[in-house]
């Protein structure tokens, strides 16, 4: 957007005097496109703004909408100018006009400037001017939403009495959302109140907040569902498109994720974001299209070179190229640097060790096999410590196998074969019956050789007769 050329007054997208429909919704939508395309370059649409101003200079409602459009596009100067023009017409009407958007915009400007007291004054004035304006009530209730969201939620009761159809739970969720961004631990409350609300009552501002917190709590299916509801009404919403895309990738629906990414990038208000390209790269890795993955990940790194999460995808790319040792190295770096690495990430590291151990076996390099197996066993031990109770059947079986290589006597592996049998019985004895029987036979053989007839008898009872 920064590199776009300025649009001259007579350029293709310019709004000439004759082009105005004198319908503020249409005219403002067309004008906003020019504002977005010329981000931070007001001189590029000076003539169009002058014509817009001339057309609607006596319309307090239209002037308030113009102010809000500028506010939404981070032009605080013009937002204030048009808010004040709208308010002047309301004042001049001596109570006849109930248009309060200008007052709300001024309140928002003061609030964002760190002056909640002045903001509250404008919100209260809006409420007094139009005592049935739900947004004015909401703004008054929410002035201190970051500092004390519970009190702000309590103040919504007045509004609920005024309008029973008002989405009070969604507004309350918004208060907790703002408090969370201000540093309070209220993400859980945000999700709780959004889940209480009727989806049909959600407003444009609610959808992006709701999908974000759903993604934050790894509720990917629900995130996609709410994003779809939002996009049916507001198809160009950046947050809804983004978290729908991210959720699809998190669910390994990689083809759909890539399609969703393209929709995100096509949104008029989209600005390049490193995480988007990183997650798109993950999707391409999932499809084993490593050339495209590398291309997209390079875009991500160009925007932000410090992304430990990206090492995981780079590791997958190296695996796809056959560079197993390099893939393992990158995966190790990923787990060392990325604090939020989960159980699946550690499983990925174990898998990368499997790859390089197979290469060592192929080359008949016993020393290398032993060294790598010891390191893999250390990872498995860390997983038991870091993720207690998760996939014990897999981990104990895997540790039994690694320890059988580390200690050929069988003493070390016997401990983990026993733990495997315990975990398998606890999880699903029927499902693992065959594996339990084969493992029990190994233990019978080991304890018989050790002269431990008591333990050999215990495990002998678990061995199924051959069919």
Keywords:
single chain; 467 residues; mainly alpha; 25 helices; 71% helix
Give me the secondary-structure topology.
Elements: H1 24-37, H2 46-56, H3 60-72, H4 76-92, H5 101-112, H6 116-129, H7 134-142, H8 149-155, H9 157-162, H10 168-181, H11 187-196, H12 206-216, H13 220-233, H14 238-250, H15 254-265, H16 274-286, H17 290-303, H18 310-321, H19 324-337, H20 343-362, H21 366-386, H22 392-406, H23 411-428, H24 433-450, H25 453-460
Helix pairs in contact: 1-2, 1-3, 3-4, 3-5, 4-5, 5-6, 6-7, 8-10, 10-11, 11-12, 12-13, 12-14, 13-14, 14-15, 15-16, 16-17, 16-18, 17-18, 18-19, 19-20, 20-21, 21-22, 22-23, 23-24, 24-25
| % residues in beta strands | under 5%
Give the ordered list of helices and strands: HHHHHHHHHHHHHHHHHHHHHHHHH
**Can you count the helices?**
25
What is the residue-averaged pLDDT?
91
Oligomer: single chain
Distance between the termini: 72 Å
Helix content: over 70%
Ranges where pLDDT stays below 50 over 5 or more residues in a row are 1-19
The largest β sheet comes out as:
none
Structural class: mainly alpha
> Compute the gyration radius: what is it?
31 Å
Q: Compute the number of strand runs.
A: 0
Assign an overall shape. elongated
Characterise this structure:
The chain has 467 residues and is mainly alpha-helical. It is built from 25 helices and no strands. The protein has helices spanning 24-37, 46-56, 60-72, 76-92, 101-112, 116-129, 134-142, 149-155, 157-162, 168-181, 187-196, 206-216, 220-233, 238-250, 254-265, 274-286, 290-303, 310-321, 324-337, 343-362, 366-386, 392-406, 411-428, 433-450, 453-460.
